[in-house]
Amino acid sequence: MRIRTAVPIAAVAAVAALALSGCVDNSTPSGSSTSSSASDVKKDDTLAGQLPQKIKDAGKLVVGMDNTYPPNEYKDDNAQPVGWEVDLAKAIGDKLGVKTEFAIAKFDNIIPSVAGGKDDYGMSSFTDTTEREQQVDFVNYYSAGILWASQKGKNIDPDNACGLKVAVQSTTYEDTDEVPTKSKKCTDEGKPAIQALRYDTQDDATNAVILGKADALSADSPVTLYAISKSNGKLEAAGKTFDEAPYGLPVKKDSELTPVLQKAVQALIDDGTYKKILDKWGVADGAVEKAEVNAASKG
């Protein structure tokens, strides 16, 4: 993965900011649609021939997704899945000559659905961790860090946040790992804990900060930058991006689909489709040059 030490706000300049009336508005960005942005992706017959027979017979890939994490994946004005990961999933299907069907579910239900064979793979901003690799394999396709945001002028420091209220989307890495670790450090030092305010959707977490219910939010860097771009100047980055880690597509352990997905993602990287999608959504800063498998366990 590509390591980053900071992500400039300009990284989201390609995403049009929309005016807010006290809350965030995640209408579909200009130039995007529910159809794949990579409609010109050509089928790779060799890769298609390597698909498991079950998928060949079905003619589709069923992709588990929680569409509440803009701009990665969310609902457009017609309640259809949209976002750069939606575009990438559709491009993978195009490359393999099959349809892409999104199985919308809560984030914490997707890995069990993949591990149990209900979904073919997941695409929902999953951070590849060694713990998760015990349940599924990951095809890595992006590098994201953590970035905090606060109301403009609040001067929040993520490394000095003891006693603050921090909004997170439930079951994300920020909820389960990052904020609890920071909070424990506070209490170990005799300082007040960080109060994590957990919300079902990223929009709700963002609005909690805008409305003053939380001091800050913590989310993956592309998500935080997008929230800032949509806040009409109400939010700003709090500190810099940290803890860069790979995103991965969860696939059932030892599945014959894993190497096919890895090759399909690599083909999209090599032919320029991947970068075209990231550029469209203003998230190219986290682009990778190589699609790996289980990068977390490789150090």
Automatic annotation (TrEMBL):
<feature type="signal peptide">
    <location>
        <begin position="1"/>
        <end position="19"/>
    </location>
</feature>
<feature type="compositionally biased region" description="Low complexity">
    <location>
        <begin position="27"/>
        <end position="39"/>
    </location>
</feature>
<keyword id="KW-0732">Signal</keyword>
<feature type="region of interest" description="Disordered">
    <location>
        <begin position="25"/>
        <end position="49"/>
    </location>
</feature>
<feature type="domain" description="Solute-binding protein family 3/N-terminal">
    <location>
        <begin position="60"/>
        <end position="285"/>
    </location>
</feature>
<dbReference type="InterPro" id="IPR001638">
    <property type="entry name" value="Solute-binding_3/MltF_N"/>
</dbReference>
<dbReference type="Pfam" id="PF00497">
    <property type="entry name" value="SBP_bac_3"/>
</dbReference>
<protein>
    <submittedName>
        <fullName>Polar amino acid transport system substrate-binding protein</fullName>
    </submittedName>
</protein>
